[in-house]
Design goal:
8 strands; globular; 4-hydroxy-tetrahydrodipicolinate synthase activity; lyase; EC 4.3.3.7; Aldolase_TIM
Length: 292
């Protein structure tokens, strides 16, 4: 398996009931995912509620995660922001021990032009001590990274090695797949459409659902990557309702509810996020039983 092919999981950050980081549960989650057959982990992406952690907490979570993973799988750090200078400074100060790449979402809220997005990532690429994976998630950032901008960055900076694509825009994906450099990785950032994205040439997924169902999800992705889409379809279809529930009342509230039911970690979130409703939690529990 090539680097960053297969199933990556954007890990949740478990919290104790009082809101402090639950490091025992984080270790349990890491082992749950590695034992479940995933290919790599992402620490403190959006799913990890990174926006609600202090700089010191992030530093501690990054260090603990690297130690707990202990090079058993590849490890990616989520470092992003809408202040380019601050993001570059954070990347320069990052302790890379145990990490293989940095995942960086495009700037949120500012709504930069495509040239602004290019210059933001240019500054990151020139400062980064590790390979960079871009992250296009316009539903959260407010602005989409165009196929042209992605191809331009992939061509101009060899340490920009791929993109987590979560736009759901197949017109953009068609253009990106056609025009990107051959070695540039396109990674699905949208669980429900990972199968069709791999059919188009994506090399895998960075998943939310995989937190709860690492074995089922990674087995499906492996089948897709061998071209066995017919073999992957039963698992894909069986997880449709579960996947919908993961996002129905916000992420990572849904997957934390599933993880609580599975006994991996609690469902505490930091405000402004809150746990799912009792009815949604019950629906999630039922779906776990259905999928097995």
């Amino acid at each position: 398996m090539n680097k960053f092919h297969g199933t990556g999981v954007a890990m949740v950050t478990p919290f104790q009931a009082d809101g402090q980081v639950d490091y025992d549960a984080l270790k349990k989650l890491i082992d749950h995912l590695i034992d479940g057959g995933i290919n790599y982990l992402v620490s403190l992406g959006t799913t990890g509620e990174s926006a609600t952690l202090s700089k010191e907490e992030k530093k501690q979570v990054f260090a603990f995660t690297a130690k707990a993973v202990n090079k058993r799988v590849l490890l990616v750090a989520g470092i992003a922001g809408n202040n380019t200078l601050e993001t570059v400074a954070e990347i320069k100060a990052f302790d890379t021990t145990g990490y293989d790449a940095i995942l960086s979402a495009s700037p949120h809220y500012n709504k930069p032009t495509q040239e602004g997005i290019y210059q933001h990532y240019k500054a990151i690429a020139e400062a980064a001590p590790l390979p960079i994976i871009l992250y296009n998630v316009p539903s959260r950032t407010g602005t989409s990274v165009s196929a042209e901008t992605t191809v331009r960055l992939a061509t101009d900076f060899k340490n920009i090695i791929g993109i987590k694509e979560a736009s759901g825009n197949f017109e953009l994906l068609n253009q990106l797949m056609r025009d990107k450099p051959e070695e540039f990785l396109v990674i699905s950032g949208d669980d429900p459409i990972s199968l069709p994205m791999i059919a188009m040439g994506a090399v895998g997924v960075i998943s939310v659902v995989g937190n709860a169902l690492p074995r089922q999800f990674s087995d499906m992705i492996r089948k897709c990557l061998t071209g066995d889409f017919k073999g992957a379809q039963p698992a894909h279809y069986s997880m449709i309702e579960f996947t919908r529930l993961m996002f129905a009342e916000g992420s990572p509230a849904g997957v934390k509810s599933a993880l609580k039911h599975l006994g991996v970690c609690g469902d505490t979130l930091r405000l402004p996020l809150v746990p799912v409703s009792e009815s949604a939690a019950e629906d999630i529990k039922v779906q776990i039983g259905v999928i097995g």
